Amino acid sequence: MGSERQEGVLLIPGLPDEVAMDCLARVPYRFHCGLRSVCRGWRDLLGSPLFYSQRRKTGKGEALVCLVQALRAGPRRRGRKKNAARAPPCYGLSIYNSTLGEWHRLSFPPASGLAVPLFAQCAAVQASGKIVLMGGWDPTSFDSVSDVYVIDLVTGRGRRGAPMTPARSFFACAVVGPLVYVAGGHDNQKNALRTAAVYDTAADEWRPLPPMADERDECQGVALAGEFWVVSGYGTDSQGRFDPAVECYDPAAGRWRKEEGLWTAGDGLGGAVVPPRSSCFVLEKLCHLYCNEDRREMREYEETERKWKVVGETPATLRSIPCVRRSPAAADC
Q: Which GO terms describe its cellular component (predicted)?
């Protein structure tokens, strides 16, 4: 419950610590920032993975979905010309609490130096309650950036992390265990990449991984069965022609394997494996969600049979899925 807590000091006077932790674990997530400021013992407890494990055990855990969204520009100033240069677009981190059906946005003061890049990728490290924002474009120059920001979901505060090398955007990312894996995307010259790396938020360190077999720009990343899957993408010389294969990195073995033909011509994708208004994600299996005018369905991939199965239909009111397309991060708090 926090190694720094003083011996003999109870979390709540008059109650055994086990009972006190059970009481605190039932407090809704939105009040956790205030709980941390009560005393050092509570601060240490709320910074411990054991606390959030207890919340899930008691059924009080809350499911959060985090995504990068554009912030609305302020009202036009009176007298300003319509063709005057506009300020660069700004982006923020929005959080949806699906347990309570509530939205809120994390705002970062200018002094913090945190500026969410355009098309930044977002990954949730559940073991530590952290959100990692990585890469994307500079909103002014549109160059790929190497920026990394680590956001504490409890305090809402962020810090700069060790930068990615190289700078990349439109890459695949996913969390396997406590580590964040990235691969593919493109660099500042719009060259598709086959390089990959892994980030340790606790140590604030990047470690290079063996490169993939192929370049993969605009690929998508998922964590499945303890592996990092990089789905589809295209090479520098085949822009827009998505590859129907997936490359899977096994952290235990330290190597990649390639699965050919994850999509086939019979899937009706017209050569675009991950077309607009379509995205991949993982529930218990690899899923593919369509939101096109002529096709609205969700499919699951049966790995043993190596084929897709339609399991549901997307609602007609769902016109696009930018939240999935822009790599949301899911966390339990």
A: cytosol
